[in-house]
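Two records follow; treat each independently.
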Amino acid sequence: MKAKIEIINSSSFKLLPIKKVASLIAKVLEDFKFEEYSLNIIYFDNSQIQELNKKFLNHDYPTDVISFNIDDNPLIAEIYIGVEIAKLQANEFKVSLRNEILRLAVHGCLHICGYNDKTVDEKTIMSSLEDKYLEYARKNS
């Protein structure tokens, strides 16, 4: 297996960052020394991500991002991004939808790399890493 990232748009939104997300996530995985991986990133609407959230996490509401590690050696994983929630959050934080989707993709990837965000300290570390990679994406646009 080699390094493979596939992005699938199952949402009703059509103009979503695909190449930028793929290249940024490849950078994150490279930095964390993953050489062989298969990662799917799937864009979902509210109803789709709510169904996933309910089925696997027992939360009956739409969410912004859900990550699943299917295997660790080699890394096989999936990241689901709720585009409608991302749009709401982009408006709330006064950033572009592209920026918010990039942040959510990085956030999901960090979970796959072993990071958590249950405590204040863990959230601070993840937020700092998200900011680092968003800055990288901005500089390499």
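The next record belongs to a different protein.
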Amino acid sequence: MPTIECGGKQIAIDDKGFLSNIDDWTEGVAQVLAQREGLATLTDEQMVIIKFLRDYYKTFTSFPILNYVCKHTHQQKKCVNEQFVNPEKAWKIAGLPLLDGIHFVSMDGGKHYLMEECC
């Protein structure tokens, strides 16, 4: 099983880069995951989104409607797309599990993503 290193500790991830155990998540782990996803460092605005996603998942065990995220984090509409491009990237950085039966697709070459049921 692949791992990432954070603070001298090895943390298990799956083959797609999602944390194997959501309880292994820390802000430091989020920074390492963000770097793996091509983000040099997480901004305060991005971290607010990440923490909101984690809280939402712990309450509802699902992915929130994207406009709901922006409204409740007091950010502009489409904040998740603007901050992370692909919402699945934010989900992964939040240390949350891959959602069965759901994926994100882009109809415009990667500028905007929509959640879609699959498989």
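Discussion point: The radius of gyration is 14 Å. How would you locate this feature using only the token line?
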